[in-house]
């Protein structure tokens, strides 16, 4: 009898556990494939769908593939879009600057960024240093120069926390923020959002809470057509309020772009380590980017 009771208790426990565990696995799986494929263009502002010259501003070689893969590869098949990368240092803190510059060029090639648009600034006052705050005014000046040179109409960069907290990342945000605030008629800037350590490594699991602010748009996208790039729905003018999520964006990479970002990081051999193998699989930043408009 005790053995029979124990077996029944175990069966009930397994059934109860499965009712909790299965949804925790299925919901992120379904949500990911929904947002990466049929709704891939529905959780971004109109400027993401229409921009022709997109600029990514980072601090070090490998930032573009470790953090910004989904944003960099958004609309990767659109031949009318030109992507540019402005990297402010060559990552020479440990004396590997020459190697990291060559790695950056190979990563850019993988991401579809041409040699002319893959620029390593490497200014004497902006050297890789985890203890030095970079000159914000100098960053602003350089960003302004390249925005004008390349006729940029959309900018991606770090948020004030810099994803990893690196002081150079945070300085980049400060410099780009200065440019954006001083040029309200210029290209809008969107900052990649920093999350806690737990959420950072939750992979698809964190897509559920990340998508919550976009719930209204997800529901609307499932039941109504999305406004086209020309601002119309079914040939009729869309209401001005249709882009009510213009201050935020959720860009989810499909499987092809995820592996493309992995290959891009693979060119940064000097930065590869055992823990990075896990990062490439479970980091939210490899799968999706949650961005907010810089004001």
Structure description:
Its EC number is 3.5.1.89. Keywords: Membrane, Transmembrane, Transmembrane helix. This protein is α/β, with parallel strands linked by helices and 295 residues long. The protein has a single domain (51-233, 246-293), classed as Rossmann fold (3-Layer(aba) Sandwich). Helix content is 46%, strand content 13%. It contains 13 helices and nine strands. The strands form two sheets. Strands 3-2-1-4-5-9-8 form a seven-stranded mixed β-sheet, with helices on both faces. A two-stranded antiparallel sheet has the order 6-7. Helix 5 (97-111) links the parallel strand 2 (82-87) and strand 3 (118-120). The longest helix is centred in the N-terminal third of the chain and has 35 residues, at 2-36.
